[in-house]
Design brief:
alpha/beta, 5-stranded mixed beta sheet, 3 helices, 174 residues, globular, 4-stranded mixed beta sheet, 13% helix, single chain, signal
């Protein structure tokens, strides 16, 4: 009997799709998400992007084929995205006074969701040919989030835009 239960468990797990849920008990969206965040109307939690001291030097080699990389550049205090071998600025010059420096040694290669290995470099890498990440959804983050942290990113459900916080102001992208 134990062998049958084990065999059924292995078969079930091998056909399951890789999904990660944060801040909720059940995914309320379709199954096309690889990383899903709580979709409650009271949500005020976004993703905090890594704050990098000098983007040009620190990530020169690791950004090869890393289009879609997001970070907060502490050198010019801007939220940026890497696309087509260039850093695209997503915010104005913000404020770094709230940023808590991580002085501990970084261990490992980061976390990969959706695959066993990856060529991409990052603290969190999502690998999928058929699933996307759904950003945390927040209605009017500029008024709802009381103490946003520099480098916070979310989806504004009211303006239907990508919202990023640079430490001073929210910037919105369609």
């Amino acid at each position: 009997m134990k062998k049958i239960i084990f065999l059924i468990s292995v078969c079930t797990l091998s056909t399951a799709t890789a999904q990660v849920l944060i801040g909720d008990n059940q995914i309320n969206e379709d199954q096309s998400t690889i990383l899903y965040f709580s979709n409650t109307s009271s949500n005020t939690n976004g993703i905090i992007l890594p704050a990098i001291e000098n983007v040009t030097n620190a990530l020169a080699e690791s950004t090869i084929n890393n289009n879609g990389t997001f970070l907060f550049d502490k050198s010019d205090k801007k939220v940026k995205m890497y696309e087509k071998n260039l850093w695209v600025t997503l915010s104005g010059s913000g404020n770094t006074s709230q940023i808590i420096n991580n002085n501990s040694e970084e261990l490992g290669n980061g976390v990969i969701i959706g695959a066993q290995t990856t060529n991409a470099k990052g603290v969190l890498v999502l690998e999928s040919d058929s699933k996307a990440m759904v950003l945390p959804k927040i209605a009017n983050p500029h008024t709802t989030v009381k103490s946003p942290y520099p480098g916070m990113i979310c989806y504004d459900t009211v303006s239907k835009t990508l919202a990023v916080f640079d430490g001073n102001h929210w910037s919105y992208w369609k």
